[in-house]
Amino acid sequence: MNYDVIVIGSGPGGYVTAIRASQLGLKTAVVEAENLGGICLNWGCIPTKALLKSAQVFEYINHAADYGIKVNGSEADFTSIIKRSRGVADGMSKGIQFLMKKNKIDVLNGWGKIKKGGVVEVKGTDGKTVEYTAKNTILATGARSRELPNLPQDGKKVIGYRQAMSLEKQPKSMVVVGSGAIGVEFAYFYNSLGTKVTIVEYLPNIVPVEDEDVSKALERSFKKSGITIMNNSSVESVDTSGELCKVNIKTTTGMQVIEAEVVLSAVGITPNIENIGLEEVGVKTDKGRVVVDNFYRTNVPGVFAIGDIVQGQALAHVASAEGIICVENIAGHHPEPLDYNNIPGCTYCTPEIASVGYTEKAAKEAGYEVKVGKFPFSASGKASAAGVKDGFVKVIFDAKYGEFLGCHMIGTNVTEMIAEAVVARKLETTGMEVLKAVHPHPTMSEAMMEATADAYGEVIHL
Length: 462
Ligand SMILES: Cc1cc2nc3c(=O)[nH]c(=O)nc-3n(C[C@H](O)[C@H](O)[C@H](O)COP(=O)(O)OP(=O)(O)OC[C@H]3O[C@@H](n4cnc5c(N)ncnc54)[C@H](O)[C@@H]3O)c2cc1C
Hints:
The protein is an alpha/beta fold. Helix content is 32%, strand content 26%. Helix 3 runs antiparallel to helix 4. The mean pLDDT is 97. Bound molecules: flavin-adenine dinucleotide (FAD). NAD(+) binds at residues 178-185, 201, 268.
């Protein structure tokens, strides 16, 4: 079988690439060893958001009295919550099946491996191998939960994200190691349902890639909701021999032992670069990732790589954007390389976090003289009406030319609001243009206009 493009891996990198390739008239196949949709649809973005929605509904019900509504008793049914999340993931995966069919993309089930001369070997679950040829092979094999040597995952007491979203029983206590997006989303989810949660973070702040003001605000909110946070701390070892895990934690004031039913390791990801033929074909890697140029070409002609296995933010929308650029370039178009400084990052706990561009600290370190504006949701009419007054929008502009350097938000709905900042930055608007663009009232998005006004000394509602 000869193809113009074979994509190995069907996550948001792979399946989106395959669809774009097909739209461009290229004969395309996608190889998948597990379920269509990759980590994102099956074990990442989507099932976690389903879990978080259940937690939010539960919280709403428990706070119904704040809205003048009496509810007599509520109970979270953990098994049903997990079942719903798995059902949502299955539905999404089936949707990709439909999209593959609609776009006339062949799905090759099995383990894909590149060989010399544009050959892709696919090993089915029956152990049989079939060889296909492709003018272009795009590696989109994604990543898995990273395991630290002192925190090996047994899948039962020390778990990764897959187990965390499919546990049979809700644990009474949990230590979450690492406070990136995955760590804090699970911390929020389990804490909301009544699990005693402790977060252990090596760095001085939780969600350490975010602006410090955002990290501090999330820390305050989490502590208020009963989550214990140990910053500047690291897990040295876990003793799993007893009924409860004994987690040995090095803190700034010495060693501490915390007992918990389950330890969730959320310390990042490891790209899947093993056993896909990289060495045989001579594809270069660096620090565990495939080395590519601006158009995702590896050093081997006809072999490309995108998504979590290459450098760049490990996010679904990044993987998709990379794949589209990669395949448009293959088709002879002239796509613009991706601007990695304009990638939004979102975290969907409550309060939500969303950001794009420079943090205040990073902008100053890069030599900018900055104009910073901030607008708290406590001053927003819509937030007051909705009873969600926690959080703020913070904007950072270059004082000299007005360039929109960064935007950082924490609060309800901010993951939907951040796109405005992404478009504004893409269009190279200045603060003045954001300020003069009339925002609808009453909305949470007015906070963006007001934060910008604050940066220019023109804020109205503060
Ligand atoms: C818990 C969690 C929550 C997340 N939440 C978000 C979020 O809210 N927003 C966001 O943007 N990102 C989120 N992410 C990150 C996001 O899921 C990844 O960045 C994204 O899935 C990467 O896409 P990909 O196409 O590179 O790889 P993947 O989605 O990992 O897909 C790779 C696919 O390749 C297959 N594969 C691997 N090797 C082979 C082989 N040799 N042959 C055949 N098939 C193979 C795998 O089975 C898999 O299906 C989350 C991740 C996790 C773990």
